[in-house]
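Q: My collaborator sent me two sequences in one message, no labels, and asked for predicted structures for both. Can we handle them in order? The first one she listed is below.
A: Yes, handling them in the order given. First sequence, followed by its structure tokens:
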Amino acid sequence: MSATARSRRTRTLTRIGALTAVAALAVGCTSNTPAEESNGGGDDGGTTAVSANDDPGETVTIGFSGPEADHGWLAAINSAAREEADKYEDIEFDIAEGTNDPSAQIAHIESFISKGVDAIVLLPTDGAALTEAATEAMQAGIPVVNVDREFSNEFAARVTILGDNYGMGVSAGTYACQLVEENDLGDAVIAEIAGIDSLPLTQDRSQGFEDALSECGQDVDRRVAAEFTVESGEAAASNLLQAANEIDIIWNHDDDQGVGVKAAFENADRDEFFFIGGAGSANAMRWIEAGEMEATVLYPPTQAADGVRLARLLAQDKGLSDLVQVEVPRRIVLNAPVVTADNVEQYMPLGFES
């Protein structure tokens, strides 16, 4: 990193209060005092909140079907789900082999229904393709927790847990605006390295970035797209650098492809810009600690782990004691905080290996 970039970085590593909230919703969090007995004036026989939801309860079987671990974030999804289940002695975890084949996942769900599991947690390869099978599970009385990729019918899931792709773009753009203001960059040259352009998640991230930049009178001057892989990241970043002699800020959507992006920066001997990443890999967090990267925007790899916690509560007929409405929510969207040198230690445990 050049002396100029290091000087910029020192002056600008301030916390964005609204964007550095805890990334993963603490769905298992409960009060330390016993819940009061119902006085009969409210819920008539429905689910009631309990204290100490993490205390052992009735043993339940949770079926889990996730993706093939061909990407660092996806591997983290699977491992986090398994690790969360292992924390509870009252969970019997039936985990299917990861796959990118919708037909295989349909077979997983059919198997779970046949076994009579108590709940299913599913990150679908294709939400639309898995909707019918998930609906069949719901109709069989098995609550389904849908993770990350939505079904095409809301009746296919009891709970949907999502990362915030649009929010990622907003977080990255808001942080870029802060950099522009604090460093008096004026009409800054801002570049974007997107993921696969045909995917709605990429479109949402780009739209959020554009919308946030417009709030401070900035826009995206250069944009290229990669494919969420190291090789494509390096190729896209190389093309970007060849097309632009001077760049002030670069946002890369995905920290896995960011390995290739960073290699392209090093090959071109370019470091005049602030480098912002996306997703929250362990590599990115180590680069932030080393002063080689400005920030990354988290896309929580805890979604399936949160799904396991919620599935356990649903199967045990428990609610969330930290909510006035004690039922488990139908929809949860996790935050997309900005991770900087100021707070990287807080988020390092969530970093996944690329």
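Q: And the one she listed second?
A: Here it is, processed independently of the first:
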Amino acid sequence: MTTRTLAVVSAGLSQPSSTRMLADKLSDATVAKLAEQGIDTTVETFELRDVATDIMNHMLTGFPSPKLEAVIEAVTGADGLIAVTPIFTTSYSGLFKSFFDVIDSAALAELPVVIGATAGTPRHSLALDYALRPMFTYLHAIVAPTGVFAATGDWGESADSVKTLPARIDRASGELAALVAASDRSANVRDPFALDRPFGHLIGGLTGE
């Protein structure tokens, strides 16, 4: 069976959080869509609240802790990414932005991404398209056409929430699954600090022959 890797990033601050809930629903739906295509998926889910101090220290010192470095490597080396943030003051959270700020600007190139966001009111839904989508486009990721926004009312039992949120999750996960199925990033990601030749050859002028 073909295998792909999926990284899930949640910037929720509370525990439990609706942000993590949305991330999990998108993850489960994407895995199911990939399974329908005969693709087995390895999922790694990260709560940014667990590495918040590490992110700030990295911004101040320029060096990631081993814990944060493992998260960054998993995200940049994945075949697909689900990124979900709460909306604060009409945009993504500072924690969410800071995490992607400490990642090399070329490390997410060609990475399929589904963006998601949560907030108390539907009035913040446009943040997906004026904040999150431009950021990932700038990083040269491949952003799925459908972003998923969930307001507090979407988690209730109203007729609208029963129909619309699951439909959006289904459509977005289908788009991401198609992109991930065509991706082989996890097999081809190369260490940007790796040498083309052994170090001794570089300093000694050897050809390696």
